[in-house]
Design brief:
- The chain is α+β, with helices and mostly antiparallel strands.
- It contains 3 helices and 8 strands, in the order ααββαββββββ.
- Strand 3 and strand 4 (105-106) form a beta hairpin.
- The longest helix has 20 residues, at 2-21.
């Protein structure tokens, strides 16, 4: 059995060596032509249709309300990056020493405007953070949402409809981290 294990190790090592011998060096002139970037960009032209969103109250006197033919349209773009904790702290949670006696006070000019104490800072990240940003770009296809009808119970009568137009998310930043 010991011999079999030794043969397996030798076979594995020899296969690694054969892969390594297949590698070829890249000249500096060729390597200088290679460029890379971090992050991902996403763009979408949305055409979302939801046939019905229905809420039902399940108690003895319950009823229901349904929102019918929901539509979301428009263009959206976002960038996704991984930022280190120092960058997150400076962008999202930075505080300024402007309080009484030089106390740190949340900087309202940062994304989240909070630092220390309870709330968000109580579970602030200690490692890298995912940053999703919707860039400041002009588009003629801002998001819109509409609901064709709002009905109660099994009635065919509608309370009407509603629409939200020109929804602009540009400049929005979202941070995601584990805690």
């Amino acid at each position: 059995m010991k011999l079999l294990k030794q043969l397996a190790v030798v076979a594995a090592l020899s296969s690694i060596a054969s892969y390594a011998s297949a590698l070829t060096p890249i000249a500096d002139s060729d390597l200088s032509k290679v460029s890379g970037r971090d992050g991902v960009s996403i763009a979408a032209d949305l055409h979302i249709n939801i046939g019905e969103f229905k809420y039902t109250d399940t108690d003895t006197n319950g009823g229901s309300v349904s929102f019918n033919n929901i539509k979301v349209t428009g263009a959206i773009a976002a960038t996704i990056d991984i930022v280190n904790n120092a960058t997150f702290q400076s962008e999202a949670m930075a505080a300024l020493p402007t309080g009484a006696g030089g106390a740190m006070v949340p900087n309202a000019n940062t994304t989240l405007g909070v630092s220390g104490g309870a709330g968000l800072a109580a579970f602030a990240p200690t490692g890298d953070v995912v940053k999703i940003a919707i860039p400041l770009v002009d588009t003629t296809k801002n998001l819109s949402m509409s609901v064709d009808s709002i009905k109660m119970g099994n009635s065919s009568a509608s309370y009407g409809s509603f629409e939200m137009k020109d929804i602009k998310l540009q400049g929005t930043t979202v941070y995601i981290w584990a805690h």
